[in-house]
Specification:
binds S-adenosylmethionine; nucleic acid binding; 13 helices; transferase; 2 domains; EC 2.1.1.297; PrmC_N; 289 residues; two-stranded antiparallel sheet; peptide chain release factor N(5)-glutamine methyltransferase activity; Rossmann fold
């Protein structure tokens, strides 16, 4: 079988199973097995596959038609221009969350000494901020210390692997990882807390997972009807763990951003405002201590 034949089959079967992006899915799967990119696949349509390669691609197509996202099949996902390791222990990084990274980066100054990525999952938010700061040419000595916090040890283990993959061993020394229910086990204070907590209304979160995507319910379920169950605790805990003038920047749903902003004002945050994502939807709620 050649690449053209297996790609045609993959696009047909993945499309029939309901994917909105069957061509992209097929190319990511084939590219992963052959360790090549989309352009290479396009220019080598007549190349023959070995039996082993064809079997691997077939098995991946089957998983995709059963609903498993491509990122869990290939074990990787691009976010903010960086490639992250993902497993079903962590949420697959979402493009909307790049708005949170952009906003946090715009708030980092030479005075920023400590950043906490709360509910860190794969580590995509904090590690993108760290990597983007390094890429912008900032001196290593001026890079803030980073703390990654998650309630899931399995997720923290993935974020550690991502730190080791994206940063050199010296840069990793500025990072610590802590298992905690929100900030309960954390003793320090921070200049910036950046967070993408679970914020989906409980009923909807369970419904979402019925499509076989296999993402952790723990990462999605906001533990209340309005999705703000975790955020209601996170806001006062963050206030207590921020230095004076410190910033909380938090991703929410477009449907509960206004309510989250109100909760922040009531808790005592000042300058509370909401940023929109690229689709124009309310996405990042932020305020200062
Ligand atoms: C929406 S995911 C975000 C993951 C990652 N930051 C991202 O943007 O892709 C939420 C994360 O919060 C973690 N989490 C859920 N409840 C938590 C809690 N009570 N305290 C700390 N982390 C929690 C989950 O394990 C999950 O990794």
């Amino acid at each position: 079988m050649n690449i053209y034949e297996i790609r045609t089959k993959a696009v047909r079967e993945i499309g029939k199973a309901g994917s909105d992006t069957p061509e992209l899915d097929a190319d990511l799967i084939i590219g992963d097995v052959l360790a090549q990119n989309r352009t290479w696949i396009l220019f080598h349509r007549n190349s023959q596959l070995t039996d082993e390669q064809a079997e691997k691609i077939d098995s991946a197509i089957r998983k995709r038609t059963e609903g498993l996202p491509v990122a869990y099949i290939t074990g990787k996902k691009e976010f903010y221009g960086y490639e992250f390791i993902v497993t079903p222990d962590v949420l697959i990084p979402k493009p909307d969350t790049e708005t949170l990274v952009d906003f946090a980066l715009s708030a980092v100054t030479s005075e920023t000494k400590s950043i906490c990525d709360l509910c860190s999952g794969s580590g995509c938010v904090g590690l993108s901020i760290y990597s983007a700061l390094l890429d912008s040419g900032i001196k290593y000595s001026s890079i803030p210390n980073f703390t990654f916090v998650d309630i899931s040890q399995a997720a923290l283990d993935i974020s550690k692997r991502n730190a080791a993959k994206l940063l050199n061993p010296i840069s990793v020394q500025k990072i610590s990882f802590a298992k905690s229910d929100i900030l309960e086990n954390i003793s320090g204070t921070f200049d910036i807390i950046v967070t993408n907590p679970p914020y989906i209304p409980s009923g909807e979160a369970a419904e979402l997972l019925k499509d076989g995507r296999n993402e952790p319910l723990l990462a999605l379920d906001g533990l209340s009807e309005d999705g703000l169950g975790i955020i209601r605790n996170l806001i006062p805990q963050s206030l207590a763990h921020l230095n004076e003038g410190g910033l909380l920047a938090m991703e929410t749903g477009e449907y509960n951003a206004e309510k989250a902003a109100e909760l922040m004002r009531k808790a005592g945050f000042r300058d509370v405002a909401i940023e929109k994502d690229l689709a124009g939807l309310l996405r990042v709620v932020h305020g200062r201590k």
